[in-house]
Design goal:
Length: about 220
């Protein structure tokens, strides 16, 4: 099966590319040259996208602006890259016969919902997002666009909302690994599982490391 991975020079995209290349034909697209980027350019470049999609069966879309870009780039850039380019990629994929779209999203979009008053937050896929930043809003908007596309065109779409997995100081990383952290290699494994199982319709899953805590622990964790 031929798979296009966007954002394939990034930490997560590269991990996905390397994981999938053992069992699938993988092509990568990124604006930054890298051994895992077969196409170099802007995710908004329609001509480039059309070239990269030739013969592709599945799209894995990781390319995006992220939280560190908030305040450095305009809201219009977040809309253009995170929302409009996602919609364009899915629609171009449909034109070229793509059979599945896997979207790499984030648990960060739950925002204030993950920090309620008087208790620690317990987040699952049923929680309503309460975004804090334009980054959160853009990822929600992109998910909504894909839901509409899936409904109209019957394209199977899987959204994987990954928890925190980027390099940080060891003490901070240890805390996040207890609550909502994950290794990039496990994120890659989740994408491979979504690719191989190919659930029908539109589906949304949180991808995170296993926590030793339960929902009933939240009040005590808040007090600690």
């Amino acid at each position: 099966m031929k798979v296009l991975v966007t954002g394939s020079s990034g930490r997560v995209g590269r991990a996905i590319y390397i994981k999938l290349m053992r069992t699938h034909q993988v092509v990568g697209l990124d604006k930054t040259p890298c051994s895992t980027a077969d196409y170099i350019g802007d995710i908004r470049d329609k001509t480039l996208i059309q070239q990269a999609l030739k013969g592709v069966d599945v799209i894995i879309h990781t390319a995006a602006l992220h939280a560190p870009h908030v305040g450095l780039l305009s809201d219009d850039e977040f809309q253009s890259i995170n929302v409009d380019a996602t919609e364009q990629l899915a629609l171009e994929g449909i034109k070229q016969g793509v059979k599945q779209f896997i979207f790499t999203s984030t648990t960060a979009l739950y925002g204030h919902a993950s920090t309620p008053e008087h208790t620690a937050g317990w987040v699952n896929e049923q929680i309503t997002p309460q975004p804090k930043t334009v980054y959160h809003r853009s990822k929600i908007a992109a998910e909504d666009k894909l839901k509409s596309i899936s409904d109209v065109f019957k394209l199977p779409v899987t959204v994987l909302q990954m928890s925190r997995c980027f390099p940080e100081p060891a003490d901070l990383m240890a805390v996040y690994r207890l609550t909502r952290g994950i290794d990039a290699r496990d994120v890659a494994s989740a994408h491979l599982a979504a690719l191989d199982t190919r659930p029908s319709g539109f589906n949304r899953f949180i991808v995170s490391g296993k926590t030793p805590f339960k929902a009933s622990d939240c009040p005590r964790l808040f007090n600690d």
